[in-house]
Amino acid sequence: MKPFPYNPDLIHFAVTVVFSFLLGLEIKTYGQQIEEEESPHFIGSARTYTFLGILGFIFYRLDPGFLVYVAGLLGFTGVFMLYYHRKLEDQKTSILLYLLGLVVYSLGPLSMHYTLWMPALLFVLTVFILNARQAIHDISTSINAREIETLGKMVLLSAVILPLLPNKNVLPLVPLSPFKIWLAVVVVSGISYGGYIAQKYFFGDRQYLLTGLVGGLYSSTAVTVVLSKKAKELGGSPILTAAVIAATAMMYFRLIVVTALFNLHIAKTLLIPLGLLGLACLAVALVYARNRDGRQSRIHMEDKNPLELGTAFAFAALFVIMIVLTQFITSHYGSWGLNAFSFIVGFSDIDPFVLSLLTGKYAVGLEKIATAIVIATGSNNILKALYSLWFAGMKDGRHAAYWLLFFGSLTIAISFLI
Fold first, then answer.
1. Bridge-partner residues for 206, per DSSP?
2. Residue 399 contacts by C-beta under 8 Å, 6 or more apart in sequence?
3. pLDDT for the residue numbered 88
4. How crowded is residue 170: how many other Cβ atoms within 10 Å of its Cβ?
5. Rounded (5°) CA angle 380-279-341
6. 415 with 374: CB under 8 angstroms?
7. Handedness of CA 354, 358, 362, 368 (dihedral sign)
8. pLDDT score of 304
9. Burial letters for 355-377: b for 16+ Cβ neighbours within 10 Å, e otherwise?
10. Phi then psi dihedrals of residue 417, to 5 deg
11. Which residues contact 192 (CB under 8 A, 6 or more apart)?
């Protein structure tokens, strides 16, 4: 008995019919939902869109040169123009139904040129976008257009400019190529941007503890300053102390992730000490959070985008400067000079310094580099303790300051055991 012959056209036709019918059902359901607000007139039904998909398949199969297919498209466009003219009389200008018709009409050629995943993906995306109408509207009205512009510039620099940068050392005293320097800046800025987006759009109008947890992924120093000012305004509160300490906990976890992206060996060295310190901070934060006093007003962080081009270029400049300084110090003063420099750098933004340690080539071993990262982290906690006292005052900020000072000192002490 001969096996049933495989006919690819039959499979492609079946895929086209099934997805055209399903999209027709979804479009008709969508039209019924918006009929009152969009227009009392609606074009087509599930059968209409099924036949539209079938015609797209037949026209393309008859003439792969697209002449018959384009003629069918023009005919459909003419029919829609009549419908659109009627919509304009009702002062409705949306062309969404025409675009949906184009999607259905394209299913035939797609099913012939791609495997099942492409028509299926197109169907899923269409259904998702139609049903996410309100969510998309909310996002479009709440998002900052300036941030879209900034993200667009960053995509341009990372996806277009980055591949054009030379991947060889061209800067004197810098053991990295411009490509690797900018790639490091893009990676670290991307991590900060992810925390910023989560903080602003997914956890907007946060309460204090959530502010510390999410904001710590972006900048624990900025969170400490904002919450310390809030403590001064409202008076000392256990929940504010918990939020400040939680931000520092997330800083430890963030450093582990950044280190793992650039040097897995150092990340393995830091995983246990930084992980335990982060967990200890979370435990202390939870103890304070249990003593909440009811003051749970919501708080807004400063609207500062970490992907601003000026910030990215300044970070790159600091990154290069840190590489040069660290190379000079390790060459002339060895590990003790690096440790002293790490402690001093901790009283500023430690990200460029940590990145320079992870990507540079120095006259000290990887264990010494891991030690330097931990020392800088500890002194940065001391800086945040001073910020807490300065902005909140001794009365309202002492609890957070004491714990930050404790964890900062403990972090430095642990660094010498690595």
1. 299
2. 236, 238, 241, 288
3. 79
4. 12
5. 20
6. yes
7. positive
8. 56
9. bbbbbbebebeeebbbbbbbbbb
10. -95, -5
11. 217, 218, 219, 306, 307
How is the chain split into domains, by residue range?
8-138, 145-415
Residues sharing a CB contact under 8 Å with residue 58, sequence separation 6 or more, in sequence order: 108
State the DSSP string of 148-212: HHHHHHHHHIIIIIGGGS-SS--STT--S-HHHHHHHHHHHHHHHHHHHHIIIIIS-SB-HHHHH
Alpha helices in 235-300 (DSSP H): 238-262, 264-289
What pLDDT does residue 79 have? 87
Quickly tell me which residue has 């609606």 as its tokens: 42
Answer whether 0.85 is exceeded by the pTM: no
Mean pLDDT, contiguous 10-residue spans, the chain (418 residues): 65 92 86 56 77 93 86 90 79 82 92 88 90 74 68 75 80 77 78 68 62 80 85 79 92 93 92 96 91 53 58 80 89 90 91 88 87 96 93 89 96 91
Residue 171's CB: how many other CB atoms inside 10 A?
13
User: Token pair for residue 32?
Assistant: 């019924």
19: tokens are 């997805």
Give backbone dihedrals phi and psi of 261, rounded to 5 degrees, phi first.
Answer: -70, -25
Q: What is the pLDDT at residue 187?
A: 78
Size of the chain in residues: 418
Give 353-375 as a DSSP string: HHHHHHHS--SS-HHHHHHHHHH
Cα separation of 106 and 52, whole Å? Answer: 9
